[in-house]
Structure formats: structure tokens, C-alpha cells
């Protein structure tokens, strides 16, 4: 267990990136032989494709450009737009769901195509923490393409892709689970790199270009135990209540108090997972005046009591 005093929180983007977690779902490890092509409908979650060998082309709905893909390239679609991937711009495509239905993966591996030159892909989707991840993803372009094939890839990208490719080629027990864990790390690091590049400085919040709203977010995170109200938040960033509320909603998609509550609950969950602090202490640290009030808020957010959450997390950890 970590001591309560060890939760140091840097400001701005660095703070949000430290808390950015990624949970991937690998739909399939695909061995495609030319000609091949598949299309994926728009979905309400981010998608990714990692090409570990061979080559291909990517087309994304609403985007005029086509993207040439080579072995080692990682594509991330932060908002899950519909798209096509194929070996050649002239190759026919089928819906991926139909391909999976007609040619079910064997041991998590899909074999599809016309029998020609082979390409290998890792395809899937992922989720991020709703509190920090949602606005961060909105700051990214429609298509994030990290080139791993042109000799300029950072070592972390080359190393992770090499390990993923090795596991994909392996038939060892548990290789699918290992690929998923490696993919989590790959996506998290890739998103961090892209967000840092997009921002250019760790002193502000990438997700919000409005400097006053960025400051309000930092205040909430730096001082979640304060008895914040909307007027108090607005005053802290020298704005009227109405202007602050309007600009906050425009920047984040939620009201100041909705955002603060979700952040406090994420912190409460972190304390329950990582410390042995009692519910009363957690209430104080997260700005609630009693065990009853923080318990009610926690149950509304997670559907279980703090005690049940801590017990389930302990059992899950012990079972790993």
C-alpha cells in the first residue's frame, strides 16, 4: 500500500498524461494474403491497427487522403471513424464483421485473402478513462499515424512492436493475453507522445485551449478536498458564474460540478485500490463532509459501495 502523502500531482498536461490509462480489446490477429481488404463502420470508441509485416493502404471516412502503411506502422483513430484497410487502393473490400462471421478466427487468429503476398495486422479498439481520456482524445487529429518503418521510430515504439510481432508469431500458451497487455502499453505511450507533440508545452491542458478553463481544471485536481462551488471556481479564475459555466461546458462537454464529481470519485477509487485509508479519511481528501455523503456519491458513480469496491479489487489482485 502506498502512503497517502505520496500522491504528488503535477500540473496541466503532465498530470493528465500520468493518469491516462488504456484498456485495449484485440479483435483479431490477422494474416491477410493479397488481394485483401476490409472496412469497419464508425463506432463510438477509438480504433487501432498495427501492421507488423507486409503493407497496406488506409482510407478514413471524411478524410480526403489515403495513407500508405508499411510494416511497423501504428494507426489510431481516436474517435472511431469508419475506415477501410486493404493491400492496394484497387482491391475490393468487405465489411470486417462479415469476414469474421464467414471465416471465424482460430485461436484468435484470422486468415483471409486471395493467397498472394502476406501482411499481418493486429486490429482492435480501446477505451480510456472517461474523466481524463475523453477530452484528451478530442485534442488529437482524425488519424494518428506513427511510422515505425522509416528508420525514425523511437526506440520504445520499435521495441514494443518487436515484442508484439514475436508474440503474434508464437503459439505459446497465453500469447493472446500477452499481446493485449503489450498493446495497452503501446497505445498509452503512443497517445502520450502525440499529445505532447500537439501541445508543445506541459504548462497547459491540451484538451482545453481556453487558459482560464485549463486553470480551473488544474485547481480541481490540485485541491479536490476544497469545498468547491461554481461561484467559487469562477472567482478563482476571474470569471462570472454564467460565463465560466458556459465556457466550461463548451470545453469539456459537462458542467463544472459534474466534472468535479467524476474526478473526486476517480480519486476515491484510487485511494480504495492503492491505500488502506478509511472511508472517512477518503471523504475528507475528496471534499465530502461525511462517510455517508461520499458513499452515496460513490454508489451513484460505480454502482457499488466503497467497501464492496475495495473488496472486489483486492480479490481481483489476489487472483492474478
> In terms of per-residue confidence, which ranges show pLDDT below 50 for 5 or more consecutive residues?
1-12, 199-207
Q: What proportion of the residues form beta strands (DSSP E)?
A: 15-25%
Looking across the biggest beta sheet, what order are the strands in? Answer: 9-1-10-3-6-11
Given helix and strand content, the structural type is: alpha+beta
Q: Tell me, briefly, the overall form.
A: globular
Beta strand count: 11
Distance between the termini: 17 Å
Helix segment count? 12
Largest sheet: 6 strands, mixed
Average pLDDT score: 81
Radius of gyration: 22 Å
Order of helices and strands: HEEEEEEEEHEEHEHHHHHHHHH
Helix content: 40-55%
Any key phrases for this structure?
single chain; about 325 residues; alpha+beta; six-stranded mixed beta sheet; five-stranded mixed beta sheet; 12 helices; about 20% strand; globular; disordered N terminus
Describe the protein's architecture and organization.
- This protein is of the alpha+beta class and 320 residues long.
- It is built from 12 helices and 11 strands.
- Strands 9-1-10-3-6-11 form a 6-stranded mixed beta sheet.
- A hairpin with a 5-residue loop joins β4 (55-60) and β5 (66-70).
- α9 crosses α11 and α9 packs across α12 (306-318).
- The two termini are 17 Å apart.
- The model is unreliable at 1-12 and 199-207 (pLDDT under 50).
Amino acid at each position: 500500500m502506498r502512503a497517502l502523502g505520496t500522491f504528488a500531482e503535477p500540473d496541466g498536461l503532465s498530470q493528465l498524461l500520468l493518469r491516462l490509462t488504456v484498456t485495449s480489446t484485440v479483435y483479431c490477429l490477422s494474416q491477410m494474403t493479397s488481394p485483401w481488404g476490409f472496412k469497419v463502420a464508425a463506432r463510438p470508441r477509438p480504433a487501432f491497427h498495427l501492421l507488423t509485416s507486409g503493407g497496406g493502404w488506409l482510407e478514413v471516412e471524411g478524410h480526403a487522403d489515403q495513407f500508405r502503411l508499411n510494416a511497423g506502422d501504428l494507426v489510431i483513430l481516436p474517435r472511431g471513424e469508419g475506415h477501410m484497410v486493404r493491400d492496394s487502393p484497387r482491391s475490393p473490400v468487405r465489411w470486417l464483421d462479415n469476414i469474421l462471421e464467414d471465416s471465424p478466427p482460430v485461436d484468435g487468429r484470422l486468415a483471409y485473402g486471395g493467397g498472394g503476398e502476406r501482411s499481418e495486422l493486429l486490429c482492435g479498439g480501446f477505451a480510456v478513462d472517461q474523466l481524463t481520456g475523453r477530452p484528451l482524445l478530442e485534442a488529437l487529429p482524425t488519424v494518428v499515424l506513427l511510422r515505425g518503418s522509416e528508420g525514425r521510430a523511437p526506440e520504445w515504439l520499435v521495441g514494443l512492436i518487436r515484442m508484439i510481432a514475436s508474440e503474434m508469431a508464437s503459439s505459446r500458451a497465453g500469447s493472446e493475453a500477452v499481446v493485449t497487455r503489450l498493446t495497452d502499453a503501446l497505445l498509452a505511450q503512443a497517445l502520450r507522445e502525440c499529445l505532447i507533440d500537439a501541445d508543445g508545452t506541459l504548462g497547459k491542458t491540451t484538451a482545453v485551449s481556453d487558459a482560464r478553463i485549463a486553470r480551473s481544471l488544474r485547481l480541481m485536481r490540485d485541491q479536490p478536498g476544497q469545498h468547491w462551488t461554481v461561484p467559487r471556481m469562477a472567482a478563482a479564475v476571474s470569471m462570472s458564474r454564467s460565463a465560466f459555466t458556459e465556457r466550461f461546458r463548451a470545453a469539456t462537454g459537462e458542467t463544472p460540478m459534474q466534472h468535479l464529481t467524476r474526478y473526486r470519485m476517480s480519486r476515491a477509487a484510487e485511494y480504495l485500490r492503492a491505500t488502506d485509508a478509511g472511508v472517512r479519511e477518503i471523504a475528507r481528501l475528496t471534499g465530502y463532509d461525511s462517510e455517508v455523503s461520499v458513499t452515496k456519491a460513490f454508489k451513484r458513480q460505480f454502482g457499488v459501495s466503497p467497501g464492496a469496491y475495495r473488496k472486489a479489487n483486492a480479490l481481483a489482485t489476489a487472483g492474478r
